[in-house]
Write a structure and sequence with these properties.
alpha/beta; 6-stranded mixed β-sheet; 10 helices; 259 residues; 33% helix; 5-stranded mixed β-sheet
C-alpha cells in the first residue's frame, strides 16, 4: 500500500480528497502544530517508540494548521517535508492557516493572515519583526518580501494539500464539516474553516470524524467526532490519535512543562 501512496504523494495538484480506505496499517493523526517544532519532535519521539514493535506500515498525518502563531513554522514545514523513519510515511491536510497564507501570497491585500499568526511565520523564515509591520500589504515590497522569505518548495507543498483523507473507519478533515450535509457534499470552507457550534453537534457520516481547529483542554471523543487540537502554541501540549485498521483508537500527548 505504501507504494501506491508514494505514487500519489506529494500531490502534484490540489485535490479535494485522498482516499486511503484500503490502507491496513496504523495511522497516527497529529493535532494543530502551529509552529511548535519542539512539541512536534517530542510527540513524534513518542509515536516512534509506540510503533517500534509494530511490523505494519504506518502513516503520520498532520491535521492542518502546521504554521502560524508559534515560533518555528519554517522548521515545522522543513521537518514534515523531510526524511521519516523506515516503515513510516508522512501526509498532511490543509488547515485554515495554510489557506490564509496561500491567499495572502496570491493577493497581499488580504492581510488577515498577518494578524492571525502570519507575522510569526515570516519571522521564522528570517524576516525581522519590525519589517513585518513596516512593509505594507498590497505593495510590491510585500510581494518581494514573500518571494525572498518563503521557499517555492514550501508553497508548492502547501498548495497540493488535500482537504480530506478517508480511511476505512474514519474521515479526517482540519475543521470537521457541516453535520447537516452528507460528507460528499461538504465544501472546502466547511472542511477547512468549520462551522459555528460544530463541537456541540453530532456528526453521522458512517465513520468517525477526526479533526482539529477547535481547541479543547484535552482530546475528546464523542458524538461521532474525535477532536485533537489541544492548543499547542499556547498550552505547550500537542496531541495525536492512533487509529488502527480495525477501528481501535488510542491517544498520545507530549507536553513541554516550560511551555
Amino acid at each position: 500500500m505504501f507504494e501506491l501512496i508514494k505514487d500519489i504523494w506529494p500531490l502534484r495538484t490540489s485535490a479535494r480528497q485522498l482516499n486511503l480506505e484500503k490502507f491496513e496499517g496504523t495511522v497516527y493523526v497529529v493535532g494543530d502544530v502551529h509552529g511548535r517544532l519542539d512539541l512536534l519532535l517530542g510527540l513524534e519521539a513518542l509515536i516512534f517508540d509506540d510503533a517500534k514493535e509494530s511490523e505494519t506500515e504506518k502513516l503520520i498525518i498532520y491535521i492542518g494548521d502546521m504554521v502560524d502563531r508559534g515560533p518555528d513554522s519554517a522548521g515545522v514545514l522543513a521537518h514534515i517535508r523531510g526524511a521519516v523513519p523506515r516503515g513510516f510515511l508522512r501526509l498532511a491536510l490543509l488547515g485554515n492557516h495554510e489557506h490564509m497564507l496561500l491567499r495572502f501570497v496570491r493577493d497581499t491585500n488580504e492581510d488577515l493572515w498577518l494578524n492571525f499568526g502570519g507575522r510569526e511565520t515570516l519571522m521564522s523564515y528570517g524576516v525581522g519583526e519590525q519589517e513585518t509591520f513596516d512593509v505594507k500589504p498590497g505593495t510590491a515590497g510585500m510581494r518581494l518580501l514573500l518571494q525572498k522569505a518563503i521557499p517555492h518548495e514550501d508553497l508548492t507543498f502547501l498548495r497540493a494539500l488535500p482537504q480530506a483523507i478517508t480511511l476505512k473507519h474514519f474521515i479526517l478533515t482540519h475543521a470537521g464539516g457541516n453535520p447537516a450535509k452528507p460528507f460528499s457534499d461538504q465544501t472546502k470552507r466547511e472542511m477547512v474553516w468549520g462551522i459555528r457550534g460544530f463541537l456541540k453537534t453530532s456528526a453521522d457520516y458512517g465513520r468517525e470524524m477526526v479533526h482539529g481547529h477547535f481547541i479543547v483542554n484535552d482530546v475528546r471523543r464523542a458524538d461521532g467526532k474525535i477532536v485533537i487540537d489541544t492548543g499547542a502554541y499556547a498550552s505547550g501540549r500537542l496531541s495525536a490519535v492512533k487509529l488502527e485498521h480495525d477501528g481501535t483508537v488510542d491517544f498520545l500527548q507530549y507536553e513541554n512543562a516550560a511551555n
